[in-house]
Each structure stands twice: as structure tokens, then as C-alpha cells.
Amino acid sequence: MQPPYDRLRERARKIVSEFPPPDFYRVHPRAHRLSRQVYDADETVVKLKRHMTVRLDDDFGHGLRHSAKVALDAGALIVIEGSRRQLSEKLVVSLVGLVQCAGLLHDIKRKKKDHSDRGAEKARQILQRYPLERSEIEDICLAITNHEAFRPTAEVQTLEGRLISDCLYDADKFRWGPDNFTDTLWAMVAFYNPTLSSFVARYPKGMDALSRIRSTFRTQAGQVYGPQFIDLGIAIGRRLYAVINEEFAEYL
């Protein structure tokens, strides 16, 4: 990254550290523990993690770190939503594994136009080599197709498929909160290498997108906890914008 982005990134991370973590992690510890257990032990998920480690570009802000967070939070959302619907534990664990596969794969074509459709196509090719039912692969691929914001979604016929799709979407959009200012934004800056004045010129559009995403969460749990992620992101973004104009004016 060109100057002064290294300093600005550290300033942003300090601002993030001054805000409390989202309630989602405090209120549902069991859901997060179960999601982590599946992520670390499920043979298909573990094999897919190894496969994706060398295929996701961290320099674009949507690499393995991003995908792992999405997978883990999507798994926790499945646990919460499954409990609310009184699904069996066996089914919930199975769905956690499937949504984690979707989380690991959802941004495999992130740099391409129509990346959700292209990603679903690539995911279908990859998953043919895994011990999954055809219906499970289709549920994963539909979830990837439907994870992009502000565009029409493909219809999902089954409860299991809708849960996977909606939980993937919500977990991905959780990343628009504090994570955007600790990691994603700076990885994308490193990739595009804009001047700070160009970065600032685009800033209001990015903040507007944050506001618009607030009302798009799809699961009941996402609708409860998602807006807080976004509100934190907006508050952090406003603080950072003021810091840029006050402390980095010489670069504008």
C-alpha cells in the first residue's frame, strides 16, 4: 500500500478496538462452539479448507480469513435457526457442515463480474469430488448464487436449502461491520492502490451501501443481530472519515 495507508489502517484498527464486539458472539456461545467443532472436525469441511487455502486471494480482502469467518458465523446461525425450528441435532450438524462448505467457496470468483453466479458454477465443479449428495451440492450452489446483495435471488424449494442460503447471506453481510475496517477495506486498497483523494471521493458511496445493507438480513437471528454489525460499521466509518480529514489532510 502506498503512503499513508499503513498508518491509516492502524488508526482504523484502533478505532475498532474502542467499540464493543457485536452481541451475536456474547449471546450465543453454544452455537459458536458447535460451529467451531464442525469446522475443525467434519472431514468434508477440513478437506475443503485445505483445497481452498491456495485458491483464495487474500490480497483482495475476500480470502481464506474472510471465508472462514463467514463459514463459522453461518454455522452458528444454522444452530440458532435450527433450534428455533426444533430441528434434530443430527440434521443441524449436517446443515452446519454444508453451510460451512458454502462459506469457504462463496467468494472463489470474487474478482469476476457476476461473481456469485460464476462462483456457484465453480463450486459445483469442485464439489463433484466430495462425498456429498446431489441435492446437498445444489443447496450449497444456490446459497452461493444468492449471497450477493442488491440483486434478485434464485428460488430455493426446501427448508434445508433456504436455511443454508439465508444463513450464508447473513454471515457474509456481518462482515460489513467492524471487519470491513480491520481487514477487508485495506486488502482492497492494497489491490487497487488508489490515491487517498480518490479513496475519500468514493467514501460516501461506501457508507451509503452500509446503510442500505442494514435492512436486508434474511434469517430471524440475522434480523436481530445484523443491524448492530452494520451500526458499528457506520459509527466506525464516520469516525475514520473524520480522522482522515483531520490527521491526513496533507495527502488529500
Explain the overall architecture:
This protein is mostly helical and 252 residues long. The protein has one domain (5-251): Hypothetical protein af1432 (Orthogonal Bundle). Helix content is 72%, strand content 0%. It is built from twelve helices and no strands. It has helices at residues 5-17, 23-27, 29-41, 43-53, 64-84, 89-105, 115-127, 134-145, 159-174, 178-192, 196-213, 220-247. Helix 1 (5-17) packs across helix 12 and helix 9 (159-174) runs parallel beside helix 12 (220-247). It is globular, with a radius of gyration of 18 Å. The model has no long low-confidence stretch (mean pLDDT 94).
Regarding quaternary structure, how should these chains be classified?
single chain
Rg of Cα set: 18 Å
**CATH architecture descriptor text:** Orthogonal Bundle
Contiguous low-pLDDT stretches (5 residues minimum) are none
The 3D shape can be described as: globular
CATH class: Mainly Alpha
**Count of strand segments:** 0
What's the order of the H and E elements?
HHHHHHHHHHHH
Q: How widely separated are the two ends?
A: 16 Å
Summarize the main sheet.
Answer: none
By DSSP (H or I, 4+ residues per run), the number of helices equals 12
Q: Going by CATH, what is the homologous superfamily?
A: Hypothetical protein af1432
* Tally of domains: 1
Q: Hey, roughly how much beta strand do the residues contain?
A: under 5%
Helix and strand content put the structural class at mainly alpha
Mean pLDDT score: 94
CATH topology: Hypothetical protein af1432
